[in-house]
Amino acid sequence: MTIDIIITLCILLGAVVLFITELVAIDVTAMIIIASLVLSGILSPQEGLAGFSNTALATVAAMFVISAGIEKSGALSPVSAFLEKLFLKNYWLGIISMLLSVAFLSAFINNTPVVALFIPVVLSCARAIQISPEKLLIPLSFASMFGGVCTLIGTSTNILASEYSASAGLGAFGMFEMTRMGLVFLLAGFLYLLLIGLRLLPDHTKPNTITEKYNLGEYLTNVVLQEGAPSIGKKIKDSPLVTDLKVEIIAVQRGEIHFPSPADDFELEVNDTLKLKGDLDKIRKLQSRDRVLVQPLPNNPTSKQIEGEFVLHEVVVLPNSDLAGVYLEEIDFEARFGGAYFLGVHGRKAQQHKKISDWKLEAGDCLLLGSHKDKSEALQRNFPDMFVINHTDHAAFSKKNALIASLATISVIVVASLGIMPIVTAALGGCLVLVLTKVVTPEEAFRSISWKVIVLLAGSLSLGVALEKTGLLN
Description:
By secondary structure, the protein is of the alpha+beta class. Among the domains are: about 75-160 and about 175-200, no CATH class; about 215-395, Alpha-Beta Plaits (2-Layer Sandwich), CATH 3.30.70. It contains 19 helices and 9 strands. It has helices at about 5-20, 25-40, 45-50, 55-75, 75-90, 90-105, 110-130, 135-150, 155-165, 180-200, 210-215, 240-245, 280-285, 335, 375-380, 400-415, 425-435, 440-450, 450-470; strands at about 220-225, 250-255, 255-260, 275-280, 290-295, 310-315, 340-345, 365-370, 385-395. The strands form 2 sheets. Strands 3-2-4-1-5 form a 5-stranded antiparallel β-sheet. Strand 2 and strand 3 form a beta hairpin. Helix 1 packs antiparallel against helix 19 and helix 2 (about 25-40) runs parallel beside helix 19 (about 450-470). About 40% of the residues are buried.
């Protein structure tokens, strides 16, 4: 055994220990591998850094950008909305549908945005059916990994293995070359989760956050039913707002007539102003509902749905704020807070049966404000009479962008599957389409790439070269 083999073996074992113990971040471990191999003379600087120029890394980076385009455009939102309905009807139908949906999408899209998209859905379902979130979140994570092994682009390691196979003269993998074996692993994983795994998951049903414990996330807001809204002509109990979003309709304003606590068989009409009670996620969904206009203050003609990307802010009125003691109808939120929109209020004291326009703010009341993304930072920084307790980015659903992102993704899959061009070329072309059509900006494309994964793969490639060069693999 040569000294080079001993050194390489020590570096390999050290890397395994660091990966297991996580004493340092995985990307730092990858850099330690590269530096150790170069400093020890096992690899030349060119060989040590060659991994960064590997086409597999370019493919992985491109797939991150394509996944970001899918996520930002909201192309998968209809899927998640449909899944949520199934989940609320039947637990087993919901869990099986979730596993299948996540696995299928993860076979073609990076796992991270798929999981990120479904997290709010499963959390909402967990609250609705009163089970521990872990019983849905952990299967969600595993389903994304099961799906990732079914295609070439399903996971970064498949792309890396394909590139290594090609460089070794064995030929690159086809798009669906590992699908048959991947489906075997997927089926085995699903059977284990459904028959055994779900029963082993923890059951933490007690509220874990202040928001859940004290119900701070429940806001009152007004919406106007515009011409063509699905709820028009339906009884409250049959309204999609109630059946789909599970919001509570507390009052209805029809012209000058006010209907507090309307009955379930109260029939809704066009231009009705509904006072609703719902959490942050439900109000976010209201923002993207067609023909439902979030309009908290009827006397404020500038209130309208926020177009494009926006951020929701949960803020608390501080004791020394001059907002305390002021009626909501007297506040011009857009002028006072840099273009912010008032979307809802949660009172420290029970005031839910009052008209929102007649609501008198007190210290400790929570407000839900929305602002355009480019004005979000100013809202958080420039208004000392409010304390921002939470802010959430949200990209509004865009049919045009969703269509472009979906077509770009499908095109990459088809072109690479038919062998018309290499996967790296197809993926880079898909990225270019998304950037040129402004589905994602160059800055968003750069931020969407998980550079930790890129560095990790580069370090793994360098270690593979060292194992081969020293003869340790023989």
